User: What shape does this take?
Amino acid sequence: MKLQYKQIYEKIKTGSVSLRRRFVLYVTSAIVTSVVLLLLLLSLFGVLNPVNSRIDAHLDNQLDNHVVQMERDVDKLAAYSLSFSEQMEAVIEDYLTEHDLSFGDLTNDIDALTALQVKAFGTVYTNIRIAPCSGAFYILNTTVNNTLDSPRYNGIYIKFANLYAESTINTKVALFRGSSEIARNNDINLYSTWQNEMQTDVFADMSVFAENGYVLSSVTKIPDTWERARYIYSPIYGKDGQAIGICGFEMSDLYLQLSYSTADTESSQTICALIDKTEQGYVGQFISNRSGYVPPVCESITVKEHGSFYEYQCGEYEYIGKSKDVDIDGNTITIAMMFPKQQYESIVRDGQFKNVAIFFIIAAVAICACLWLSKKYITPIRKSITQIKTNKTDFTPSGITEIDDLFAFLAEQDRQNEAVLAEMESQKAEMQTTLDQMSSEHSQAKQEITRLAYSRKNEVDQDDYEQFLLGIKSLTPMERTVFNHYLEGKKVKEIMELVGFKESTIRFHNRNIYSKLGVNSLKQLLRFAAIMKRDEEGGDKK
Assistant: This one.
């Protein structure tokens, strides 16, 4: 096909392609080129490009929805966390005042710490019910046994058991950390990995906690479980203004998946992720859409640019998406919307296939249009040209006014040219007759000259003629040149211009020529020359 096109192109360059083919090729090329430029512009501005239009708009829409929801819920949880800490400060202060104790007196006092938990349970339970979370807790910087090698913290940590819906009003809770007496008194179950006290470094050092505000932690593994969560918590202050503990809420992976599932109409595998940057890379929580798809938990996420998007790699799984940093009162969290890279590439291929299909459809329509135009306009022109070439007198109109006028004009020109040609042929015949007559007269004149030369030869002195012939051989080259010009019929002035001599020089050569040839005048020289020429051409003839 490439070779055929090259051959056609070479024929066009040499002018050996018919008018119809040339018209179809040029017009089709112009239309196809225009279509290609149009498609490129439409793709450049995102009209035909699924990556820069539909996918981009879809991800932006989902991202904006989740950002708004996350900002709203984090603000709400932050407010609940601050309120929770005030409530806990009041509960602890009442308990210490009621029993005439200081906070330091609670260390190693299991009865006092258990009694405090019993008193604070209602506050913790109420907050887990009203806050958008999967768990609530308070942790105090004290323990029932401070002799252990690893530090422990006393408090209550309750979690929702068996989350199955976004609404947690009717969901049962389980005691994750705290005294078993709390579970018995409130008819709740102990969590499968229940312990009495905390042993974790998940939370900030309570001794250096900021005086106001809250902390939004990065995602972390919940101690002694397979679950992961991020926390929002605030400090609990004692009478002296020193932080004695923290309280807050848990947002587990499962809770986020139920609460932030993506209402996706474009892709059944679009997911949301809350990503945190660490020293080792990125970690995050994945939130499925309503179809239930969610990638497996991985320890690290790799993020790199992919055109106008980002590529996220979680283990062997690769995703394409967009992200946005959300700053909430100095706490930053990155929200990303993504879907599998394989699906992204499939959508891109589908878009490219559609573009190619559109291109070929338009090209096919362009070719058909060119063929129709060729049949409508080029074919009549070709027929008219054929009529002129065959010299038909009955010219058939093509139906195109300009073309009919042109070919009528050309036909008239042909008729006029034929008349002129006939006239020229007649003149040529007359001129040939005249030329033949002149040739005959020339031959007769030549014969007459020969006859006269012969007769003159008899009239001249033979010795003078012989001296003339011998003298020619003694002429110098320049004298011979001047002599030859005389024989050609040139005058003195003409010879001066031809050889570039002055008149005196020419006359000097004349004297030498006359002396060597034995003549007295130019007339005698020319007479002897005519006789010599006659002898050279045919010998002595009468």
Notes: The chain has a mean pLDDT of 78. DSSP finds 13 helices and 14 strands in the chain. The radius of gyration is 59 Å. The CA atoms of residues 268 and 291 lie 6 Å apart.
